[in-house]
Amino acid sequence: MDLKSPGRDTGAVRESLGAVPADAEVVVVGGGVVGLSVAFHLAEAGVRRVVVVERDLVGRGSSAKPVGGVRATFSDPGNILLGQRSLEAFERFGPGIGLRQVGYLFLCRSEEEVAEVERSTRLQRRLGGSGRMVSAAEAVGLNPYLNGDALLAASFSPRDGHAEPALVVATYRAMAEELGVVVCEGTEVVGIDLAGADIEAVQTDRGTVRTQRVVCAAGAWSARIGDMAGVPLPVEPVRRQIGITPPEAKPPTVPFTLDLSTTLYFHNCGDGLLLGISNPEQEPGFGREYSAEWRPAFDKAAQVVAPSLVGRELASGWAGLYENTPDHNALIGVSRQVHGFAYATGFSGHGFLQAPAVGEVVRDLYLGREPFMDPSPFHADRFAAAAPVRERHII
């Protein structure tokens, strides 16, 4: 199987586009799901001349390759609130985005994991979440692929599930453009002009856009954009890979299932399954070439928790990029050093599922309004202070 991530194909796009706008009230750097959500929410609030600059095609960066999970099952209060708010938006979008609220099932195989997940579940419920602890037998009842003898307990959050990222990206783009947002594909940011601490323009390989406001939503490429403005954004790209099995005749519908001990995960994908596992040995970098090197680790983990998945044939697969921060929490905020520079990046695998709420938060920060939740724990300056708390519900 020779499955490589699509490369840049911007020639035809450049020919079909008009000139890059000469000026904008705000330039959003990054045409993924987060950037498009930010652009839509700004335009919806009445901000005019919103320009999205995307180096490739819209949705072809990290938004093209997530596993599609949508959840509010986290250990960090801010992540829980962002997840819940986003779930409300996904529910409003309805079946048009392929939303399947089959739940999330986090597997616990040690007493430490049980205690940790119990604490997280109590916090989630205090904040209005749907999660609850279930026994090993109940977990197998929810997901017959599982080996109950390997489990001590699990948490199940029925409101969570998965959706199709490409459909969400297309939805946000359509809504944004209907409100007048200009999306410039095949347009790479090559510099940001500053006059002291003030932004004057964004330089692209297709021309200059005069502006005093920039929102960095460039995902795995955000550190470079931050450097252009003199704003440190500690974002590191890391490759993640998944595989899709061939269709089954009558596959059971299962929750999005994750093993905390090994980071193995799987869920339904059409009539097949999406399979994956994080690789802690993966070196950082922008490579998105697909390989089968993740399969031995997946099979070793599956042998314990889901033996029938060992050695499963794959019909397809892909590699994408996580945009990791040191504590695996996002960077959301407004620079205290450079006037007019905001950012929404570094989601460490959670960007798709948090994008609707993040668009709202950035809109309110831009307009000087109080957001629905306190975003200050996500400010990039947190790494200069005491060690931040690491999100535990990650893969």
Describe the structure concisely for a colleague.
27% of the residues lie in helices and 23% in strands. It is α/β, with parallel strands linked by helices. A hairpin with a 2-residue loop joins strand 10 and strand 11.
Describe the structure in your own words.
The chain is an alpha/beta fold and 395 residues long. Helices cover 27% and strands 23% of the residues. Strands 5-6-4-14-15-16-13-17 form an eight-stranded mixed beta sheet, sandwiched between helices. α2 (33-44) runs parallel beside α6 and α3 (77-93) packs across α9. The longest helix is centred in the first third of the chain and has 17 residues, at 77-93. Residues 1-13 have low confidence and may be disordered.
